[in-house]
Specification:
single chain; 6-stranded parallel beta sheet; alpha/beta
Length: about 350
């Protein structure tokens, strides 16, 4: 046990359910008492925590694949930090762990829900992105869900984000014939082609997605990795070749809508083209974790896989980081640093 534990910790609470875009008054940064960990638990001083698009859905009081955030309780999400007190076998003070109690400075974590990570293998923040949940989402969504095979042409929406940028690079590393990405700024488009090795990319704000995709993929696509939904999904259905596959990972274009959003108008094409569109949740693919970490860590070490992070400093800016993510202000993984 550490002799001088902190007595309090700041944590973000959801205090009202957002209608449409989240507002500052929907959240509160509050002080909470810190006590020594009970048996089987550890205290972790968080160094980084993650903000992710799926968290917007958890702010609504609706039945979903994961329970909604409770009002006037701390929110949660991926975090990585240093153990400052341990009452559990196998985890010692000074160890670094990945766990699910973000949005706070000090986390009281059940040891069975913490995973030790090696800060010498990769920077700690990487375990929230390229080597973490977002990285596994890209890996499982491309190889398992979309059944990617060498020679496939791949289109990725939200391609400059944490998941999308990794999908495109993984496809190239595994022999894609062509990789196309869409993003929301000319600067991000340049990043996709010049740094991440995409064969083509376009700014979806510069014209209809359907037209820009047709120009970028004149021979069609075999795989679509969807992070956006809406007009991107409609364009992809039009561009997919016979027996094409789509991984439906996210629909950020619809997360803040207050009215039902229309679906693609060309879904009849799914029949004639014999398309497969499949939703995915990363939690279904935990069995791939060891292979994923081994393979991706190797590509990181060799420099073949590149990644970006957008870091917002200080727990007081947790809300700003989350809303910035929803507005597309991040390049790569959006992370809040408490260091």
């Amino acid at each position: 046990m550490s002799a001088a534990l902190p007595t309090s910790s700041r944590e973000w609470h959801l205090v009202a359910r957002p209608h449409g875009w989240p507002k500052a008054e929907d959240f509160a940064l509050r002080e909470a008492a810190v006590a020594a960990p009970a048996e089987g638990r550890i205290l972790v001083r968080n160094k980084f925590f993650s903000v992710d698009p799926y968290m917007r859905g958890r702010m609504n009081d609706v039945k979903s694949y994961t329970p909604p955030f409770k009002l006037d309780h701390p929110m949660d999400g991926g975090a990585v930090g240093e153990v400052i007190a341990s009452n559990a076998e196998g985890i010692a003070v000074g160890d670094h762990v990945l766990h699910g109690l973000g949005w706070r400075e000090i986390a009281d974590v059940p040891a069975k829900h913490a995973v030790k990570v090696d800060p010498d293998l990769a920077p700690l923040s990487a375990y929230l992105g390229v080597l973490g949940m977002t990285g596994l989402t890209a890996y499982a969504g491309l190889f398992d869900v979309a059944s990617f095979k060498e020679g496939d042409a791949v289109f990725v929406s939200g391609a400059a984000g944490a998941v999308g940028s990794q999908v495109g690079q993984l496809a190239k590393l595994k022999g894609a014939s062509r990789v196309i990405g869409s993003a929301g700024s000319d600067e991000k488009v340049k990043l996709l082609t010049e740094e991440y090795g995409f064969d083509a990319a376009f700014n979806y704000k510069n014209g209809p997605v359907r037209d820009q995709l047709k120009e970028a993929a004149p021979d069609g696509i075999d795989v679509y990795f969807d992070n956006v939904g809406g007009d991107h999904l409609e364009a992809a259905i039009g561009a997919l070749n016979v027996h094409g596959r789509a991984t439906i990972c996210g629909m950020i274009a619809q997360y803040n809508a207050t009215e039902p959003t229309p679906g693609p108008r060309n879904m009849a094409l799914i029949i004639g083209k014999r398309l497969r569109l499949q939703g995915m949740l990363v939690g279904d693919h935990a069995d791939l974790q060891p292979k994923f970490v081994e393979e991706v860590a190797g590509w990181l070490a060799s420099g073949e896989l590149k990644y970006r992070e957008t870091t917002v400093e200080g727990i007081g800016h947790g809300y700003d980081a989350f809303v910035g993510l929803l507005r597309g202000e991040n390049t790569g993984k959006m992370i809040v640093s408490l260091v």
